[in-house]
Structures are given as structure tokens and as C-alpha cells.
Amino acid sequence: MEALPPIGGNGCCQGSACKHSVWGPGEREAAGSLLLGLPRPGLFQTRIRSLRNWAAFHSSHHNPEPTMSERTKADSSGRRLTESQGAYSGLQMEKQKKMDETKHVKIQDMDVDKSPISQETEDNANVNELALELAKNVVTTAVKTVEDAENPIKNINWITHGEFTAERGRKQIEEFVLTWEYQDCWVHCTEFIEREDLVHSYHYIYCVHWSNPTANIPIAQVSASAYFTIKITKNKPPDMPIEVSYIFEGLSLVHRPGQTRFREKWLRDTIEAKNILMESIPF
Questions:
Q1: Model pLDDT for residues 113-170, shown as the tens digit of each residue
Q2: Which is nearest to 205 in space by CA: 232, 179, 181?
Q3: How far is residue 51 from each of residues 39, 58, 176, measured CA to CA in Å?
Q4: By the 8 A CB rule, do 159 and 172 touch?
């Protein structure tokens, strides 16, 4: 057995009596016995090598390397996954491209629709239509003015409230109708229909029947009518003129004497409409 080297506090003095020693009396012998009972370094290395071998075996047993078929399957799965990802990416890119093209076309359409040139063209068209309508109105008014100047609208002197009776009112309507311009083929007659008693006035209703008899049909089957209303106000003085208005059958425009020129076309349209209706009804 090898002799133990002297153990001192710093190894600077021989023996246990060194003033630097950390050993007390009898402690050196006890430490030497303890050191003699420890295993040798070679035994530690053997045990460590065994542990390393066991760890390698355990690792290879629980995590074996993949076989050739497994590696082939893994490579095929990876390629399929890569191809799928590539196809999906291609579809996404194509879809995005189509969306970009659509947006581009829409933007171009908006630019064309809202371009200053198209807006200016539309404004010019609206101005032209308005100018044409104004020109038509001006021409119509001018023609009417010239016609009224050359051939003024005729009227009669209507009787007053104090002079009025139902028969006088009928005769005045006959006199007024004779001032209208129409062909000689037209015949008419005037009749008193009724008197309406309202709160502040009386309304006398008259009807002027118009027809157009011919040699083949001396008695006309249909006629056109014009309805006159003479208004007598209860609280007006007797020397005030009566108020007269009239409308034609099938029309809603209210006329007043001296303000509207008579049109024979109004009677003709009514007669033609009634004839068409009569022909469509079987007897």
C-alpha cells in the first residue's frame, strides 16, 4: 500500500504538527483510512463505460432508424404535400390575378363613365333639349299672339244678376256658341238641365248637344256635348255680370268666355271615340 502524503493545511509543512494544518490530533489517521476505502479510478471508468453502452442501446431500441420503404413513403408524402401546396398557391395566384383584372376593368369603366368629356356631352344634350323645348313654347306663343291679333277671340256682353233668368241664360249661351268657328255640317241645340242651390250661390247647368248628320245618316247616332254653368252669387249686387264657365265632354279643362278659342277638333274626337265604341258592341 502506498504511503499517504503528509496532509497539511496548505501542503507546505511536513507532519501533522504544521501550524498551517487543518488536521487535529488523530484526524489524519481517520482520513487515511477513509481514503483507503474508496474505489480505484479504473473501476469508475468501467462503470461509466457500461452506463454509456446501456444508454446507446436503449436509444437505438426505442428510436430505431426508418427502413427504406418507410423513407420512400415519407418522401412520397412530402412530395404530395409539396405538390398540393404548390397547386393551392397557383389557384390563389390565378384567383388574385382575375380579381385584379376585374378591378382594373371596373376602374376603367368608372373612368370612362365619369370622364369630363362624357359629362360635358350629357350636359350639352340636356341644354339642347331644354333650348328646343323653350323654342317650341316661344313659337307656339308667337303664333297664338299673331292669330289673336288677326282674329281675336270673340265674346258677347253677358247679362247681369238682376236681369238673369233660366231662359235668358239659355239664349245667351246660344248667342255665344254662334261666335265659334266651325263647319256648316255641324248642328247643335241648347237645353237647360237643372239648378243647384249651394250655400252662397246658385248654379244653372246647361248642355249644348253637337252632332254631324249626313245624307246617309240624317239622324246621328252619337253626339258630343258641351256643359255650361252660370253662377249666380246670392250676395252680389244686381248690376254685376253673371259668371260663366264650360267644359267639353270627355275633357277636364275648364274654359271661360273670351279666354279660349274654340277648336272643332274637340267635338270631332268625341264623336269618333263614340263611333268606335258603338262598333265594338254587338247588338
A1: 455 666 777 777 788 888 888 888 888 777 777 766 778 999 999 999 999 999 999 9
A2: 232
A3: 17, 11, 140
A4: yes
Alpha-helical (H) ranges within 114-199 are 116-150, 166-177
194 in the Ramachandran plot: left (φ > 0), alpha (ψ -120 to 50) or beta? beta
Tell whether the model's pLDDT for residue 22 goes beyond 60: no
Q: How far apart are the first and last CA of the chain?
A: 156
> From residue 282, how far is each of 133, 273, 277, 278 by CA, in Å?
45, 16, 10, 8
Order of all β-strands in the sheet with 187-197: 187-197, 201-211, 224-233, 243-248
Lookup: cell for 109: 369603366
What is the full DSSP assignment across 3-69? PPPP--SSS-SSSTT-TT----TTHHHHHHHHHHHSPPHHHHHHHHHHHHHHHHHHHHHHSPPP-HH
Residue closest to 244 by CA, chosen among 252, 234, 256, 262: 256
- Cell representation of residue 188: 247643335
62-to-48, 52, 72, 158 alpha-carbon distances in Å: 21, 16, 21, 129
pLDDT: is 98 or 281 the higher one?
281
1, 7, 27, 158, 200 from 32: Cα distances, Å:
12, 10, 9, 162, 150
Confidence of residue 214 (pLDDT cuts 50, 70, 90): confident
pTM of the entire predicted model:
0.51
Grid-cell match 253677358, residue found: 158
3 state SS of 10? coil
